[in-house]
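Reply to dn_fold:

You asked what the input looked like. This is it:
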Amino acid sequence: MPTQSDNKTEPTPICGKCGAPLQKAGYIDDHISIGKIWGYGSQFDGETHNFDVCAACYSEWIESFLNNPREQTAEDFR
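and this is what came back:
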């Protein structure tokens, strides 16, 4: 996961899209962490991708999805 760091403190997680720090006032803002190990034959064959996305960027991102996850409920998974 990308981080911002100085030599005096622990690395601070940042949004992989906008670069905003996810840690503010001693707590980590709500965000989504995504990790994916890509399989054989894929466009990213053998690569591992890990990133965090802040809530604002996530909201913007999912608006571009054909099936918006915001429209799904717990009932959809039963």
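The helical segments are 55-62.
Hope that clears it up.
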